[in-house]
Automatic annotation (TrEMBL):
Gene3D superfamilies, per the entry: 2,3-Dihydroxybiphenyl 1,2-Dioxygenase, domain 1 (3.10.180.10), Divalent-metal-dependent TIM barrel enzymes (3.20.20.150)
Record: residues binding a divalent metal cation: 134, 165, 191, 239
SUPFAM superfamilies: Glyoxalase/Bleomycin resistance protein/Dihydroxybiphenyl dioxygenase, Xylose isomerase-like
Transmembrane segment boundaries: none
Pathway as given in its UniProt record: Aromatic compound metabolism; 3,4-dihydroxybenzoate biosynthesis
Top-level taxon in the UniProt lineage: Bacteria
Functional summary from the UniProt entry: Catalyzes the conversion of 3-dehydroshikimate to protocatechuate (3,4-dihydroxybenzoate), a common intermediate of quinate and shikimate degradation pathways.
E.C. number(s) listed in UniProt: 4.2.1.118
GO MF annotation terms: isomerase activity
Organism: Ciceribacter sichuanensis
Family classification: Belongs to the bacterial two-domain DSD family.
Substrates-to-products reaction catalysed: 3-dehydroshikimate = 3,4-dihydroxybenzoate + H2O
Stated name of the protein: 3-dehydroshikimate dehydratase
């Protein structure tokens, strides 16, 4: 599989871009003219730089507004094209992109454009180069790949072909099946980009909001299926104009790009097994069944605090690890692990020294743990392994958000019996059961500009989908929240919160924990009111919620006063959607702003109580730092 990315897609100067692109695993690069013009090196030197990085230059894009020009402009664009053909020889690339004319003085007409391209093809042939024609979605006369193809067809020249760009086709909702009629060898290159669905001017949307295939909402897989059906087997080139990516980490964005291409082609290959493009073999996306455990690392006093909090939630210590300073706390199907091996050279110890006490790992229940790691590795995720003591099972794992660890457990005998084989039972009676049954979801906090990275990470490896993004208003700024859920909607659930500002509660947690990942864990109960009573008996202190919230709730949902009084008395938050009802209780915070949540879903409530988040945040801010949150 030949993979390429346009230099405009990532940040940095020209050498930095090439290095990041090569490191991420691309085999080629599209040189955007500005990157080339602003870098002080000759075309030969640029060719050498790409070669040194092992990159082929797949495409050069040196000028625009070519076809259909009246004289005297027509003569000038032909001269210009020839000058660029000379440069291409030195650059060591044979393919030039010309996008459809946007000039107000250009003249329309398919035959006129075809004649211009035929004449250009003659000149290109003399230089041994090829020219690809791309329909811009906002081209003055040509804005549809079907018309661009008709021009190329009528030009009838071996050195003239079409360039397809998923954005231009999909943004205008052009039927992708029209691509199937184009002979694969007349498609000179394919550019891929996705974008979030936003209703705005096409040019502005394209120049600022494109993102990696799989990160947006466009049907890029359908587009690529149609392309693959033509027999095309050339490079797949990302051309991503995105304001955030331009300022982001070149390394991370390039890695996301490579992952997105592998992911998109894996999907295409499964739908069109006979395609000519070679796609790396890997197991299919893995069904995620749920979160089986969450593991904290904590020092002695933090461990005592966490134990007290867990005990007030009805957990009891039920196991101790055979070899390690690791304890297991359980209730219902929930397992919480506390690792206090902070002095050692273990990964937990390293995590503690960077982040302090934190939930640095979680275990995911999957269909096939080994296959999960194979797939994750094929998609560029770092595989995680630690030295084992005798008798310990190797649990397949990778690293994810905030360098945290994701372990995979399945029903194979060794992994299924890990809790009985590696832990000695401890006969501690819980102070009382709170009725918590399972982990409903975990919530991870990241910097906003990493959200797309992690959403792509989860959705490409696991059989999951993203829910729409919601804005959560924190007095210190906006936090954006999006969930990743297994396709059945309830097996696995994870929410991602992207914080821009350290003045928000989430942003502050991120800053003070030096970028750990899990900020809260939500436990499910089948009866929130019974759980609330049990918790009170256990001495649990719920996060107190303002009286105004309940007045508003009563009005908004038309609640019976008795019902809203019961909610208020137990500090329960409430929401409702078409499917059902949602109840939430929050704990007070632990450490730098970690907390637990208890939820009950009645009926088919599908959300996470986003509309309640501002009230939860306001309450946390009141309690967390009575002296106030930082203002810097
Ligand atoms: O926005 C543009 O001008 C532009 C230029 C070249 C392309 O290949 C493209 O898709 C867009
Ligand atoms: Mg393009």
């Amino acid at each position: 599989m030949r993979t390429s990315i346009a230099t405009v897609s990532i940040s940095g100067d020209f050498p930095e871009k090439l290095a990041a692109i090569a490191k991420a695993g691309f085999t080629g690069v599209e040189i955007f003219e500005n990157d080339f013009l602003t870098h002080d090196a000759s075309p030969r030197e640029v060719a050498g730089m790409a070669r040194d990085q092992g990159l082929e230059i797949t495409l050069f894009q040196p000028f625009r507004d070519f076809e259909g020009m009246p004289e005297p402009q027509r003569a000038r664009v032909f001269d210009r094209a020839e000058r660029k053909f000379d440069i291409m020889g030195e650059l060591g690339t044979d393919l030039m992109l010309i996008c459809s004319n946007v000039s107000p003085i250009s003249l329309g007409g398919i035959d006129r454009a075809a004649a211009d391209f035929h004449a250009l093809g003659e000149r290109a042939a003399k230089h041994g180069v090829r020219v690809g024609y791309e329909a811009l979605a906002w081209g003055r006369h040509i804005n549809d790949h079907r018309d661009a193809w008709e021009i190329v067809r009528r030009a009838g020249h071996d050195n003239i072909g079409i360039i397809l760009d998923s954005f231009h086709t999909l943004s205008r909702k052009i039927d992708v099946n029209s691509i199937r009629a184009i002979p694969g060898d007349k498609i000179f290159i394919v550019q891929l980009a996705d974008a979030p669905l936003i209703d705005m001017d096409l040019l502005y949307w394209s120049r600022h909001f494109r993102n990696m295939p799989g990160e947006g909402d466009l049907p890029v897989v359908d587009f690529m299926r149609a392309v693959a059906a033509t027999g095309y087997d050339g490079p797949l080139s990302l051309e991503i104009f995105n304001d955030q990516f331009r300022g982001g980490s070149a390394r991370a964005i390039a890695e996301d790009g490579h992952r997105s291409l592998v992911y998109i082609m894996d999907q295409v290959k499964r739908l069109e097994p006979d395609i000519r493009i070679e796609v790396p073999d890997m197991p299919a996306r893995v069904a995620a069944r749920g979160v089986e455990f969450v593991e904290f690392v904590a020092g002695p006093s933090e461990k005592a605090n966490l134990e007290e909090l867990l005990s007030s939630l009805g957990f009891a210590r039920t196991g101790g690890h055979l070899n390690r300073k690791v304890d297991l706390y359980t209730q219902g199907d929930i397992r919480i692990v506390i690792n206090s091996d902070i002095g050692s050279d273990s990964f937990a110890g390293a995590s503690y020294s960077v982040h302090g006490a934190n939930a640095y790992a979680f275990g995911m229940k999957v269909e096939d743990a080994e296959a999960t790691v194979l797939r994750a590795a094929a998609l560029g995720a770092p595989v995680f392994a630690e030295p084992r003591h005798q008798g310990e099972v190797a649990v397949p794992a990778i690293q994810g958000v905030g360098n945290g660890v994701i372990y995979f457990l399945d029903d194979t005998p060794a992994l299924a019996s890990i809790w009985t084989n590696e832990f000695t039972p401890v006969d501690e009676k819980p102070a009382g059961n709170a009725g918590l049954t399972r982990i409903d979801h975990i919530a991870q906090t990241t910097r906003y500009d990493e959200m797309l990275t992690w959403l792509l990470f989860y959705t490409s490896i696991f059989e999951t989908r993203r829910t729409p993004m919601v804005d959560v208003v924190d007095p210190g700024g906006l936090v954006r929240s999006q969930a990743v859920e297994s396709l059945d909607g309830h097996g696995f659930r994870l929410t991602m919160n992207g914080a821009d500002s350290r003045k928000t509660f989430a942003g502050k947690f991120l800053a003070e924990s030096f970028g750990t990942s899990i900020q809260h864990i939500a436990f499910a109960t089948d009866d929130i009111f019974v759980t609330a009573r049990n918790l009170t008996a256990l001495g649990f202190q719920a996060l107190p919620i303002s009286r105004n919230y309940y007045d508003d709730l009563e009005a908004r949902f038309g609640l019976e006063p008795d019902f809203s009084d019961a909610l208020r008395a137990a500090s329960i938050l409430y929401d409702r959607d078409e499917g059902g009802e949602y109840f939430q209780i929050y704990s007070r915070t632990f450490g730098e702003g970690f907390f637990f949540e208890i939820v009950e879903r009645r009926g088919n409530y599908g959300g996470y109580g986003a509309m309640n988040a501002p009230f939860r945040i306001a309450a946390q801010r009141r309690l967390f730092r009575p002296e106030g949150m930082p203002r810097e």
